[in-house]
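Journal club prep, notes for RB
We'll compare a predicted complex against what the paper describes. Inputs for the cobalt (II) ion case:
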Amino acid sequence: MITGLSHVSIAVPSLAGAAERLKELYGLAAGEAVVNEEQGIRLAYVDLGNARIELMEPARPDSSISKFLEHHPAGGIHHFCLNVDGLVPAAAAITAKGARVLGAAGETRNVHGELIAFVHPKDFLGALVELEERSA
Ligand code: CO
């Protein structure tokens, strides 16, 4: 059911600043920013071929990452995302093992239109895990 690593996501106070640092330190270029209106975040991706780095900046003060940035003002790793071949069955299997899948699986999509869900960090070593449906 897990088919690969989609991305590692970093919450940052400034997309421009983060993109500049990625360029300067690793020679990596971030793509055009896109806005997730629902979550109030602006996103940019660095494509590494087999996975991506996701950069997230708040697009408004009550964004879904504003609280995280209050605790980590310089930014920090927010979650990692695994690809699954079927989101609803993967969420059901994880729920059956006693973990908390946040929200209703099968109803949330990312900015690329893919079905996603998050698994509570307390159910996996303190790490927030995103699941993303992607057919191989
Ligand atoms: Co993500």
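Talking point for the session: The chain has three helices and eight strands.
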